[in-house]
Amino acid sequence: MKRNILFVDDDKSILDSFRTMLHFKRKEWKCFFALTGEEGLAILDDRKMDVVIADMRMPGMDGADFLKEVEKRQPGAVRMVLSGYSDMKLLLKSVKHAHQFMSKPCGSEEMVETIRRVTELSYILQDEGVRKVVAGVDSLPAIPDLYIEISRELGCNEPDIRQIARLVEQDVGIATTLMRVVNSSFFGFYEKVSSPARAVTLLGLEALKGLVLGVHLFKEIDEQGLSGYSVDKLWGHCLQTGYFAKTIASMETDDDLLIEDCFISGMLHDVGKLVLVTELGDRYARVLDATHEAGGPVGPFETEEFGMTHAKVGAYLLGLWGFQPRVVEAVHGHHVPDRCRMDCLPTLTVHVANVLQHELSSESGYAHSALNEEWLETSGRSDRLEAWREACMQSMEQGE
């Protein structure tokens, strides 16, 4: 069955370019084009859309107002904003009616890949309960400038690693964390890495993007809202979970990109907690109190209080920010890996790494989710658990 895609932009030349660049997808997608929000709504009245893509700056009805109306009329459609990078931070803070953001100019490969990705993630991005929680907070976590600059460079046909390294060097906090990460025992490099440019090459560009986001969100977020909750400790747990996930993945595959995605997934698996802790602190305090009193884990109490878990909120945000589908799914399912729909290795590694980090860490003094041994048995990898535990323990003992 063909997917229906609607493009709305007041620039006819841009619509014409989309029409031309997506002609080769005509057997899979039926594309519709409108010059105004009003024209777009008229098309929506006649057709059910799978994806709606709108420019942010349009005369009359702008992109935000248009997508708000799309949400009312066709809540099942994936809604995307197309705009310039100068608008990106404003968009990510204020637009709560979009699932995904894309920057202009946008090439055919990027457009096709983004549409493919959001349709794969529709079951996460269209979760009404998560959307209500995210829409109910005062503002989404702000995206750092460095993340936007790196994303822009990654969007080029041939990203310039030297330029990305120069961007990283300008941020002392990111550069310091980057060097510490690549020189940790979990990465297993036999020589000391002393150059940010070399570190960027070794870490991987997508992993760098995830690291930049993680450092920014975990280190600069306001901790005043929830007394006694350490965001620093949460970041330490997430980073080490990323290390463990990479260690486990390296034992199961030689696919470098897949290993990189496992590291990213582990590093960002608890990003949803930041929204719940910082924006809904009083309510989340009740969740933590109930968790401690009952002996955990936290997930059921989050569901009772908010109608969903931190894993779902985190996956929603990462999908909004354009991470790969298997990264988003790994975050979404790191407590329930048996619901995995895609390549399950990232989900498996993060699930196991999360449990092992709590098990092996000297600072882990609270209840956490148990290993899903039945699913591990079904996946055919239960006999690998002890080897994974030993490898993670050895790397941990060697120190970072």
SSE map:
Blueprint lengths: L2 E6 L3 H10 L7 E6 L2 H10 L4 E5 L7 H11 L4 E6 L4 H7 L5 E4 L4 H13 L1 H4 L2 H9 L8 H10 L6 H9 L2 H11 L13 H8 L1 H15 L11 H22 L3 H12 L3 H9 L1 H14 L4 H8 L3 H11 L4 H8 L12 H16 L12 H6 L6 H14 L2
Parallel strand pairs: 1-2, 1-3, 3-4, 4-5
Helix pairs in contact: 2-3, 8-9, 8-12, 9-11, 10-11, 10-12, 12-13, 12-14, 13-14, 13-20, 14-19, 14-20, 15-16, 15-18, 18-19, 19-20
Percentage of residues in helical conformation? 55-70%
* Broad structural category: alpha/beta
- The fraction of residues assigned to DSSP E strands is 5-15%
Distance between the termini: 51 Å
Uncertain runs with pLDDT below 50, 5 residues or more?
A: none
- The tally of beta strands, per DSSP, is 5
Characterize the largest beta sheet: strand count, sense, and whether it forms a barrel. 5 strands, parallel
Shape verdict? globular
Order of helices and strands: EHEHEHEHEHHHHHHHHHHHHHHHHHH
**Total of helices:** 22
Order of the strands making up the biggest sheet: 2-1-3-4-5
What's the alpha carbon Rg, rounded to whole Å? 21 Å
User: Mean of the pLDDT scores?
Assistant: 83
Structural description of this entry:
By secondary structure, the chain is an alpha/beta fold. The chain contains 22 helices and five strands. Strands 2-1-3-4-5 form a five-stranded parallel β-sheet, with helices on both faces. Helix 3 links the parallel strand 3 (51-55) and strand 4 (78-83). Helix 10 (172-182) crosses helix 12, helix 15 crosses helix 18 (310-320) and helix 18 (310-320) packs antiparallel against helix 19 (325-332).
